[in-house]
Amino acid sequence: MINSKNIFYHELIGLNCEVIESSNKSFVGISGKVIDETKNTVLIETICEEGIEEKLIPKDVSIFHFKLPNDNWVEIHGKILVSRPEDRIKKKFKKI
Q1: Residue 46 vs residues 42, 65, 72, 89: alpha-carbon distances, Å
Q2: What is the pTM of this model?
Q3: What would the pLDDT profile of 66-94 be if each residue is shown by its tens digit?
Q4: Cα(34)–Cα(55) distance, rounded to whole angstroms?
Q5: What is the predicted pLDDT for the residue at 93?
Q6: N or C: which end of the chain has fewer CB within 10 A?
């Protein structure tokens, strides 16, 4: 099961996410569901007045909050996530 200690090894697609810090201030506060992930970006589906929008957020300059299935929130620096999702399971992470 996905938890705060092993989130790096799991798929982020489907998790609720919020950008809490970014070098581009227009990204701060964007929240919604992760619908796609590439090596360098996360695509977040947001709900706005016009309907549903998709926002492409760069990983390396952002800090994210992810909501886990057990309703806990985890803060992750995007620099840690910069890699293809399928390659993260092979990667060794230091204890955080």
Answers
A1: 12, 15, 20, 28
A2: 0.87
A3: 999 999 999 999 998 998 888 887 776 55
A4: 10
A5: 58
A6: N
